[in-house]
Amino acid sequence: MQLRDYQQQAVDSAVKHFKTSPDSAVLVLPTGAGKSIVIAELARIANGRVLVLTHVKELVAQNAEKVGILTAAAGIYSAGLNQKSTDNKTIVASIQSAVRAKEKFSSPFSLVIIDECHRISQDKDSQYQLLLTHLKSINPKIRLLGLTATPYRLDLGWIYRHHYHGKVGNPDKAVFEQCIFELPMRPLIKRGYLSTPKIFDGLSAQYDFSSIKASTSGQYQEAEVNDLLSHCGRATTAIVKQLVQIGSSRQGVIIFAATVRHAEEILKLLSAEQAALITGKTSTEQRDSLIEQFKARKIKYLINVAVLTTGFDAPHVDLIAILRPTASVSLFQQMVGRGLRICEGKSECLIIDYAANGYDLYFPEVGQNKPNSKSVPVQVHCPVCDFANIFWGLVDDDGDIIEHFGRRCQALIEQEGQKKQCDFRFRSKVCPNCGEENDIAAKICHSCDAMLIDPDKRLKEVLQQKHHHLFKCDAMLFEEDKDRLKIRYIDIDGNDFCQYFNFKTKAQIRAFYAIFVLSHTRTPGLKHPRYSKVQEVIATRDLFRKPDILLLKKHKKGWDLQETFFDYQGRYQTESKFLN
Ligand SMILES: [Zn+2]
Ligand SMILES: [Zn+2]
């Protein structure tokens, strides 16, 4: 069996890495790239014994089969597959079964390969960590390699510390040290290894989930989603009607529903003989049987609630209908990936996004939750090291960046043999104790450990004093006033507060940059025009963002601006922030 070139490259990068480094490593390959072949080849060429671990029996079987093609049959250790071998050179095991019988894995392995490795948590009592600790106690030099299509987790961030493109991953909570190989999806499609995804845009109806916010871990509240959907009965009917219409000429249809209740509603609208539903509560036997019937094309529509994202493989699927909100690009691509396997008689896979998730199929993972529905990934060069960062941002009709939400440069810089993240911060707050820049959400200064004041705590204190006013900024207007620039802030009650800037001397212009441009720019780190006149600023007013809150103090003649708050998310927040 001949490996495809990129599969060989993935294997080579792992070999090269482990020759020079004991660090744990990750290979990122999209769904359908043939991860099991890469695993099998690594198992074949390894000198020592190899343990391949994964969490679902389908993947155990698939990996064992591929190992068997390339080399002597692998032993399988999986209760779900009724096999318990532990003596072979290569063992393919389910983590659940292996961890329950750790003592049977007591002759040393030289390499452990984990498929779907984004599932490993750092929790030392988790199944993977328990087994890894055991394996290390037997061979302290055991090497750890992970494979995944989704190296970014909404709850934990990147699963690795460093990326071989010179990028920082997750410096604090990464399970793996290095990402050593990553293959994007596009070349696989171009070369015919995956079917072409085709976005369908003649939608009969669409859900609007934009009013519901995902938690920081990317989860949506089921009750909230159900509540929203309870007003969308008509849309659901129209959507299913269209799915049946389009589905009549398709081979297999997967429907991703938002909640169990939603899925049941969809199921009722489909013909009972043609449709089935799988949820987290479906028993293993029933699930297996439904998937078998679906693969045999006895069932055409398979509805699921968050279960068919990994380890499920039905190549004939040629319509993916997404009816659920999705907080990450990777998860969206993972769902789409279910339809990209190549199959006889299938030329492309139709993708219908009824939930208006608005992700491009080829978006890179940004590594941060999407700040709002209009955001797209934008490239922002670091003004210090010139690294091309990918951040969430907004672009105009020409594709020019009008705002970006990057905070710190993601470049990995080699310094005295040590890899370090570039220091440049696009947005920051300054530590009042030592003057160092910190992340805008930091609570403790990274340099001097001083407590950075929580804005709410500070506001509460200040507001207890006399003469202070919290100005909840609703709009910011640029006006010319006797050769001066007048910035007029308007609050939610319609009151205004004005700030004035002169442009007569160089010092005044410098002051304008220092006081206004630096903090109000939508595109920190990118060059701003050189201003010498008021009109020039007014002409480019779209480059600036309004603050959320102004803290004002009364004096004899009027009000003084004490402090300006951006990115404010505390309890004095105004509603208007989310309206744009
Ligand atoms: Zn940089
Ligand atoms: Zn400090």
From TrEMBL:
PROSITE patterns linked to this entry: HELICASE_ATP_BIND_1, HELICASE_CTER
Protein name: Helicase
Span of domain Helicase ATP-binding: 16-169
Keyword annotations: ATP-binding, Helicase, Hydrolase, Nucleotide-binding
One of the record's GO cellular component terms: cytosol
One of the record's GO molecular function terms: hydrolase activity
GO BP terms in the entry: translation
Gene3D superfamilies: P-loop containing nucleotide triphosphate hydrolases
Domain of life (superkingdom): Bacteria
InterPro entries found in the cross-reference section: Helicase/UvrB_N, Helicase_ATP-bd, Helicase_C-like, Helicase_Restrict-Modif_Enz, P-loop_NTPase, Ribosomal_zn-bd
The keyword NADP is assigned to this record: no
Residue span(s) of domain Helicase C-terminal: 239-384
Natural source organism: Shewanella violacea (strain JCM 10179 / CIP 106290 / LMG 19151 / DSS12)
Organism lineage string: Bacteria, Pseudomonadati, Pseudomonadota, Gammaproteobacteria, Alteromonadales
